[in-house]
Queue: 2 jobs
Job 1
Amino acid sequence: GHEFLVALRLDHADALFDSGKLDQAIANYAEIADRYSRDSHAAQARYNAAVTALQLKRSTDAKMHATRFLADYPKDPLAIDARFVLAESHLMLGAAGEAVALYDQLLKEAPAHPDVTRYALRRAAGWYLQKSYDLVIDDVSQRLSSWKNVADRAQAEYLLGVSYFGKGQFVPASEHLSA
């Protein structure tokens, strides 16, 4: 009975999410994770609360849920993704240093993860926010040739352009910004 009940509650929270009732979905996911923390569905519920809060740009809530996920389920397969949610939350909250440290950790722990390019780009965005333009330029320039996705390459060119601009190097800035 208990296992079935929790699965049913998670299905209900997912249905709320699917129907666009994201605030209610977060509340239901959080309740499942809090009330049934030892159930096999609790980790998924906590992760879903974190991701949904991030989607709604509720950075403080996303940070709290991702932090709790990582504390309660550090070995869960979703821990890498929860760490990304935590990093994004820090970036959105203006804590670029914390975000950069988490992106570094992700790049070291999961070099073959399908989102590794996103981790590198988001770390570069964090460096840019810290005005560490040389780090952005060095890292992104080295990685750019291996990135095939057009959107990734466009974001990389933008980060390079604004970093050169930040350094007062307007010719390379304009080359990257018009690429």
Job 2
Amino acid sequence: VAAPWHEKHILIINDDMDLTIGPLSQENPNLGQSYLTSFAPASGAPQHWAGYYKIDTVFLQIPNYGALTTRHTNAPQVFVVRGGTIIFNHPKGIVNAIGTPLEELLPIRPLQTRPIEIATALESIGGTTITWDGGADFLESLPVGDGLSTLTHEGFPLVRWRRFGLGYVGACTINPSHDA
């Protein structure tokens, strides 16, 4: 039995205070359900996997990876191994994860970031075309390991998932913000 919406909880870890949660969620309200949402800077993220208790999904946007201790980086890895879900959901945050202990979680290998002005992939799942005046960051990448690219843009993963232990790790390779 699925938990009622008010029992679902997501944690967004982000240190870029200029980042807004933009058109992917605001212009496509029927693609998901409502969640209780908490925000934390990287330095305020749980330092033990038990700190993620009652968290359904962790979104890593643009955390300051330099502020993470070994305990900060071990906790989300154990969270996923024990059945949690982590989504890297910003191109800059994904690129910044390279060279950190969290790199091993990534379901993609970054190639290059470039601006795009339109994304039509959401139409295939009942969403709308998203446009950005002046472009939004898109991370061209290659799939890593076994997994599934559920949405693609010009042959590159737009959304990619893979198992890690008992949990899942996802990557959204497009800037979710109105801001380019």
